[in-house]
Amino acid sequence: MDNFAETIVSVLEAKFGAKREALAKWDTCVVVEKNDIHAVIEFLKNEYQMDMLLDLAGIDYLTYPNHEGPRFAISYALKSMKNPGRRIRLKVLVSEADLKVPTVTDLYKVANWLEREVFDQYGLTFVGHPDLRRILNHHEFVGHPLRKDYPATRRQWLSENDYLVPELEKHLETLGYKVIQRSEEINPCDNEYLEGSIQK
What we know:
Blueprint (H helix, E strand, L loop, with lengths): L2 H14 L2 E2 L8 E3 L5 H12 L3 E9 L11 E8 L7 E8 L5 E3 L8 H12 L2 E3 L37 H10 L26
Parallel strand pairs: 2-5, 6-7
Antiparallel strand pairs: 1-2, 3-4, 4-5
């Protein structure tokens, strides 16, 4: 472990009561209380120039050998652009009884999409997220497919498309554009249903 990693682990242990992840063999990982994650990341961004959120990923330990503790975790990988060799990974543990974690979308814009993916795939909720909804699965999807107890062969029917044009137009207007006329091709049609679907 290099000097930066040693220093940052010591600082986070002293300031936030964080603990070094004993099982992390390939990187520096620190386990942080989930209610402290926003403050820890903000501290690292401001004081140590950790200005890039490389990744934010969910973990389900349900079938993990010899695992003790909460079922879920979220891993945050941070990097400094000013000092590219400086990297750290943070982890928060999340129990099934309380799936809420503070958002970090106000610190990194990319967290918007990453948190939505974890929400969609694992069912973990990011408190304060500006638009927390599914991003990979359709809006009628039930369950969270990356949970270890989700049936791998389960198929789900989509009966109604999620019509996003008004939302896109609203976003364009916030950027100073105005949609004057829509083409007929993008308007929803009552007759366009998948074969076998039930028309409402």
